[in-house]
Specification:
Order of helices and strands: HHHH
Oligomer: single chain
Largest sheet: none
Structural class: mainly alpha
Number of strands: 0
Number of domains: 2
Distance between the termini: 76 Å
Radius of gyration: 31 Å
Strand content: under 5%
Number of helices: 4
Helix content: 55-70%
Length: 95
């Protein structure tokens, strides 16, 4: 260990250049890193769990949105009756 420490101290410039080259090599590869958060990368396409998951998503993973705008005739939305009206609308919309 003492020989290594002596080498580092005696060759400061060479060690600094070597460290910088290693850092540049590491940083050069960073743009190629990709983070894939999809759990499908762990399953083959013929995996029964993958097939069931696809069927489940086809049936239930819809992105249907509905916007309901409630505008009272008097223009005042902060009344005690408004939460009741909105609740009735939500119950009738969801069935």
């Amino acid at each position: 260990m003492e020989r290594f420490a002596d080498f580092v101290v005696n060759n400061r410039i060479k060690m600094t250049i070597a460290k910088m080259l290693m850092a540049f090599a590491i940083f050069a590869g960073i743009p190629n890193l990709k983070l894939d958060t999809d759990g499908r990368v762990f399953m083959a396409t013929d995996n029964p769990d993958e097939i069931l998951s696809d069927r489940f998503e086809q049936k239930f993973a819809r992105d249907d949105n509905l916007a309901i705008i409630v505008m009272p005739k008097d223009g005042e939305i902060l009344t005690p009756a408004m939460p009741l009206i909105v609740g009735q609308l939500l119950r009738s919309a969801t069935g």
